[in-house]
Amino acid sequence: MCVCLSRIGSIHQKTTATTSLSLSALHAGVARRWRGWSCFARLTNGRHGALQSSSFLSPPPLSMRSSRFRCTAVLLFHAPRCASRPSPPPLFASRWHGQQHPLTPHPHTNTNTNTHAHTHVLPSHPQPHSHRPTAGRISLLLLLPLTMLRATLTRLEMAPKVTHIQDKLLINGKFVAAASGKTFEVVNPADEKVIAKVAEAGKEDVDAAVKAARHAFETYRTTDCHLRRDKMLRLADILEKNSKEMAALESLDNGKPFEVALHADVALAVECFRYYAGFADKVDGSAPARSGNFLGLVKRQAIGVCGQIIPWNFPLLMAAWKLAPALAVGNTVVLKPAEQTPLSALRLGEMALEAGYPAGALNILPGFGATAGAEIARHMDVDKVAFTGSTVVGREVMRMAAESNLKKVSLELGGKSALIVCEDADVEEAAQVATTGIYFNMGQVCTASSRMYVHESVYDEFMGRLRKHAESRKVGPGNDTANDMGPLVSKKQHERVLSYIEDGVKSGATVVTGGKKIGDAGYFVQPTIFADVKDDMRIYKEEIFGPVTCVMKFKDLDEVVKRANNSIYGLAAGICTRSMDTAIRYSTHLDAGTVWVNTWNNFCATMPFGGFKQSGIGRELGKEAIDLYTETKSIHFALKGPIAKP
């Protein structure tokens, strides 16, 4: 289902799959936030039925051009361009005030194909605000969703300076030093300078945190469900109130642009907490029919102590994805953030205490995977472990869980996602989708569109447009909002990505653009495109986790779907096409847990996320995540008295 928003107060139905909404109804939906019913909120408009949305009802992304405006209403489907669509009204036409679309090169950018714009960013010389592509825009944030795509459409301000850093472990409601006294350095990837020295959790700290979580579980699981709901809503409010501070922290140790952290990471984390707060009083059961004089009840209840190990690419957001469903239904948690990016998780711990979470309900242990992470995975008193990271490490987590107490496991692992651009696709739109797919978050996304298959009839045009977008990306420190991309997260990751680029060249692939590091300080890499890539090359088969993509031609759609599926991974995939029939048919045949149509990296708390094959076990987000953190119990009652005769 999709919506074409073509003029204020007037919506035209495009296809039989299209639902019309008035702008007033859209604003009414945005304004509606029901505390107790956030996870069941609906956007309705009379006879046209209901569109499920997230807890803060915001419509999906805008794709804006000088002559057209549209808004889709479903995450997975983005409406193809309609030739008959009228020009936008003055309000939307004036949004850019004569400026270019943010995904196109700025007039002042050197567009010489031999000189990339991103090679001139370091050292950074920000343009005056009035000269930037987005200067003077009318704010339409109410019409933008809380999705990763939104972060590419807004630049509001310079990043604030970080004035407070928590550097201790959170155990049993208190911030304490590590039992060993050890600390480790957290480094700013933009300049390679040490930000802070953070306490390093070891075995003794894990034991203390698990003990605190077990003790807290005995009372927290019986806490009134409405109180659990209200605590989580308070946490969401506190996080939202301090969103700029949290975004600055996220940008500081991860390197991502401040605007991305603010409008994607923090905003989506807030919505995730609000969504699962609504589930606290809605975990229901059933009463199946029983034969004989018996009554049967089926209920779901919290598992117990949950160990959660999160990655460095979206530190705050991954913490929210795991913490929210676990805490909402009555579990207690021992969370280990990645050693590269512990700062936002520790600050979130401070906010949780402020929101009223009891001591031991949430424990946060920064440290290393081989020590703190492994101790959590094999701890005999941890009932469930959730891990997001590489497939290689995921296997180890699963092995340790099995060899200890056979604890429950959920895994969100690697990917090598395929984007298919059909011959009927809007080529410019497809190039923008591809740009978002591979260069968002510096390509450090498990769903990155690192394999692109383009129909031979549009290959040259697509490649030219994608190259133009890649070369217009401004790469530099995340605290400068003139930049589109920041550094890679660490020296190790920087070297890894550059080694893949070198291997691709040695294997015979052609570097269309990029392929080199930028500057002497910081872990910066040029946005890179490879052509002439064969299916047996490492850059084609393996997850690079950087701003590097391979673009291949295809002729037959059935054949290219087989190529796309020929991978050990199955996390995400995408199709760019104007045909609804093609989109539905081939999204079914793609072996991936998420398929995007004419969009990419579009997430919502209401939609489950996870992978096929070696991309993971279980689903995060949506109501499906509740299943990851609850046990099913059957209760049988013997009833007294005679059985009624028919």
UniProtKB/TrEMBL annotation:
For this protein, the record's CDD domains field holds: ALDH_F1-2_Ald2-like
Instruction: Identify the residues that the record assigns to the Aldehyde dehydrogenase domain, covering every copy.
Output: 176-635
Membrane spanning stretches: none
Recorded hits in InterPro entries, A to Z, give: Ald_DH/histidinol_DH, Ald_DH_C, Ald_DH_CS_CYS, Ald_DH_CS_GLU, Ald_DH_N, Aldehyde_DH_dom
Q: Tell me which residues this entry annotates as catalytic.
A: 412
Instruction: Show the PROSITE patterns listed in the entry.
Output: ALDEHYDE_DEHYDR_CYS, ALDEHYDE_DEHYDR_GLU
Q: Which domain of life is it from?
A: Eukaryota
Which GO-annotated molecular functions does the record name?
Answer: oxidoreductase activity, acting on the aldehyde or oxo group of donors, NAD or NADP as acceptor
UniProt entry keywords in alphabetical sequence: Oxidoreductase
Q: Per the record's keyword annotation, is DNA damage included, yes or no?
A: no
Q: Which family does it belong to?
A: Belongs to the aldehyde dehydrogenase family.
Q: This chain belongs to which protein, by name?
A: Aldehyde dehydrogenase, mitochondrial
Species of origin reads Novymonas esmeraldas
Taxonomic path: Eukaryota, Discoba, Euglenozoa, Kinetoplastea, Metakinetoplastina
